[in-house]
Amino acid sequence: MGKLVKRAGRDRIEAVPDRIIVLKNAGAPAQAADEASFRIKYAEVLNAAQLAAVTHRNGPLLVVAGAGSGKTRTLIYRVARLIESGVPPGAILLLTFTRRAAQEMLQRVEQLVGERAGEVAGGTFHSFANTVLRRYGAALGLKPNFTILDRSDMEDVINLLRTRMGLGSRDRRFPKKGTIAEAISMARNKCRALEEEIEIDFPHLHDHTEEIVKLAVSYEAYKRERALLDYDDLLYRMVELLKEHEQVRKRLSETYRYIMIDEYQDTNRIQADLVRLLAATHHNVMAVGDDAQSIYSFRGANFRNIMDFPTLFPGARVVKLEENYRSVQGILDVANEVISRAVEKYTKVLFTQRRSEVRPLLVRAEDEHMQSRFVAQRILELREEGVELGEIAVLFRSSFHSFDLELELQRCDIPFVKRGGFKFIETAHIKDVLAHLRIVANPADAVSWLRMLTLVNGVGNRRADRLIEELVNSAQPEKTLAESASKLGVRAQAAVEGCARLAALVAGLKSGKAGSTRPADQLASVVEYYLPIMREAYPDDYPKRERDLEHFQNLTERYRSLESMLADMALEPPSDSIGDVLAIDPEEGYVTLSTIHSAKGLEWRVVFLIWAADGRFPGPMSVEPEELEEERRLMYVASTRARDELYLSYPMYMFDRSLGHVMGRASRFLEDLDPQILPTAMLQESQDEPA
DNA sequence: CTTCTCCCTGTTTTT
DNA sequence: CAGGGAGAAG
Q1: How far is residue A284's CA from residue A280's CA, in Å, rounded to a whole number?
Q2: Interval A360-408: pLDDT, tens
Q3: DSSP for A82-114, written as a single string
């Protein structure tokens, strides 16, 4: 789907500097034309509130939009309206939650106003920051070839530093790398001192505060020395850039004269800062969001942020969209009930004119497998009734909740794609292969060197560490590698040979052996080198992994530059669970399986929510009242994804590792709902149905 | 110092 | 049901 679109997206973003020239002309936009001169009849296709938002021209605007109230539609029409009013598309910046969302919106804008919409800049905060930093980061002393660290890279570095600093080698209770990484990242996302963050959210780490802070300090230094940026750095350093370099700030602010942000309730303070700085010269910011759908507090978002918008941008206009165009009233009744029991009240009550006799259904299954069979069977029936598979989704709280269902769907030959949860980009073999390419782009990328070197037989953490010290400062790392390795001595013959082979590979990659520096070709030589290593490392399942690598090679075909490919892999990784994807018949379509988080902003005609059971949703990790409130909002998000039919199901017997078999109860968010609003059904085995 | 093996843990959610 | 971590052997 949409190779071209994706490519267009990248070009759009990369084209930043050219646009500055365009800009000067844009300084004097066409004066507000009167309604008759617009091709689109805005007043006819939008309701009053939507129209008010769309025709808003200058100054800050906050749109509080309930689920399904035409939020995306409003954004799209606003973009169209601006373009029709003479604003150059390149002066519009559309920040969304995923790049996918940005692309979909721009496609729809294109249908309205034509190709020029393609020039609108857009993407996630992180991908936008990435582009800007590559271009202007030199002002901060940042190399343009910096490497982006994902979460597991971050953990690798922390682990390395921890051992190096001799922390926690004795103390078995020293926190794990993942926990430390989380604390560091959380502190930054909430704009708190690390000490403070530990006190508030990680009180159990209190005894180790001093060491963790030290670790965080050396982590910062390590990244700076080696041109490495983690996700948080992308945002932080961009804020730094805008704060400290007035010229850059002015340039960008003048380039992007109209800024729009989707899903504002899920932004955190740094992102808000970023917007404020970007809009410094014009304050033309339109934020769209729904406080009742804030589900990313684990990433530092706070649903109260949206209410702070008018403080951040004085004089902001506020528009509320409350009419729902998506769901039938029965579904909204459930959603409204769920959210009305929240401790803190939200700003809207949804209503619709879509009447329907059908109510959502709370389905009790005997056990997990029966739940899966129910979903599969109902999907088959729906298909008989003429519902396209693409109109059906199964949602769940955590990605592993769908394991049993996946097997059942496979058994019934129902094609599906799973979104959220495991990303195959994060599997060891893909990361291994990527590491070899990352050092071509950034030879100082010590994380990747470490990964590559420890793959070599006879090289472990210690030797790798010593080799890296020499490598990262060397002008020709591959030569240095071969030389230093040869000094390891006869006792490490395997290591010497292995390093020589690795050095040869790297040399080949850099020189563009096989006459090409196309990422796909470079990847091919890496794979050739890596296959024997992989066979040895994973004797049980290497065939599966080989198929992954093949799939990965296909994915890289369309990239022309290594840098853009690597940035994409870090910021917008392909998340399809492979295998199934390839087998799908485009005519038939597929059912979507998704975590609720990944379903944000999407809608389907029929939605199943499985594992709506206490202990799963909310999960065992949610104890604090605030966490439970977020789970409640998550339930609200899940139920408002459905247009016509909504099935909430849970098994009556479930297996718990610590408790054994337990009686399952419906999620606490559903259990005391009026049966008039949420009727209950019980599954029964029919006689002629084989078990 | 590296590697092998066994045990244990622990399992949201994402850029 | 993995993947990581700790401990022992080469």
Answers
A1: 9
A2: 999 999 888 899 999 999 999 999 999 999 999 999 999 888 888 988 8
A3: HHHTT--GGGEEEE-SSHHHHHHHHHHHHHHH-
Pairing, β A361-365 against β A642-651: parallel
Residue A258 bridge partners (DSSP): A92
Q: Look at the alpha carbons of A400, A402, A408, A409 in this order and tell me if their dihedral is positive or negative.
A: negative
CA distance A320 to A49: 7
pLDDT tens profile A301-352: 888 888 889 999 999 999 999 999 999 999 999 999 999 988 887 778 889 9
- Residue A671: CB partners within 8 Å, gap ≥ 6? A614, A665
Angle in degrees, 0-180, between the axes of helices A209-225 and A177-189, rounded to the nearest 10? 80
A165-A166-A167 Cα angle (round to 5): 90
Q: Which two tokens stand for residue A224?
A: 């700076």
- Start-to-end CA distance of chain A, whole Å, equals 38
Helix, coil or strand: residue A655 = strand
Cα distances (Å, whole numbers) of residue A562 to A389, A504, A648: 37, 19, 45
A684 Cβ contact partners less than 8 Å away, ≥ 6 residues apart: none
How many residues are listed for chain A in this entry? 691
How many angstroms from the chain centroid is the CA of residue A379? Answer: 28
- Write out the DSSP string of A324-346: -SSS-HHHHHHHHHHHHTSSS--
Are A87 and A68 a contacting pair, CB within 8 Å?
A: no
Amino acid identity at A526: V
Q: What Å value separates CA A618 and C1' B8? A: 26
| Continuous segment of H or E residues that includes residue A465 | helix A461-471
Report the C-alpha dihedral over residues A193, A196, A200, A204, rounded to 10 degrees: 110
How many angstroms is C1' of B8 away from CA of A612? 30
Do A531 and A546 meet the contact criterion of CB atoms below 8 Å apart?
yes
State how beta strands A361-365 and A416-419 pair: unpaired
Alpha-carbon Rg for chain A in angstroms: 27
| A574: CB within 7 A of chain B nucleic strand | no
| Bridge-based pairing state of the strands A258-261 and A680-682 | unpaired
Please state whether strand B lies within 7 Å of residue A459 at its CB atom: yes
Q: List the A541 CA – B7 C1' distance (angstroms).
A: 22
Tokens standing for residue A469: 């010290």
Q: Which residues pair with A649 in a beta bridge?
A: A363
What phi and psi values does residue A97 have, to the nearest 5 degrees? -80, -35
What does the pLDDT look like over A434-468, one tens digit per residue? 999 999 999 988 889 988 988 888 888 778 888 88
Cα-flanking dihedrals φ and ψ of residue A588, to 5°?
-80, -30
The answer to whether A653 touches A635, Cβ cutoff 8 Å, is: no
The answer to whether A402 and A396 are in contact (CB under 8 A) is yes
A65: which residues sit within 8 A by CB, 6+ positions away? A71, A74, A288, A289, A290, A320, A321
Q: In the complex, which nucleotide's C1' lies nearest to the CA atom of residue A460?
A: B2
For residue A284, give every residue at least 6 positions away whose Cβ sits within 8 Å of its Cβ, in sequence order, or none: A58, A59, A60, A257, A258, A259
Number of other residues whose CB lies within 10 A of the CB of residue A269? 17
Instruction: Identify whether the C-beta of residue A95 lies closer than 8 Å to the C-beta of residue A260.
Output: yes
Strand partners of residue A323: A351
**Bridge partners, residue A591, by sequence:** A416
Q: Give the dihedral of Cα atoms A368, A374, A375, A377; nearest 10 deg.
A: 140
What is the residue whose two structure tokens read 């990944």? Answer: A598
Q: Nearest nt to A150, CA vs C1'?
A: B15
CA distance A638 to A350: 15
Q: Checking DSSP bridges between strand A642-651 and strand A317-321, what pairing results, if any? A: unpaired
Rounded distance between C-alpha atoms, residue A249 and residue A257, angstroms: 12
Query: What residues of A act catalytically?
Result: 71-72, 262-263, 293, 641
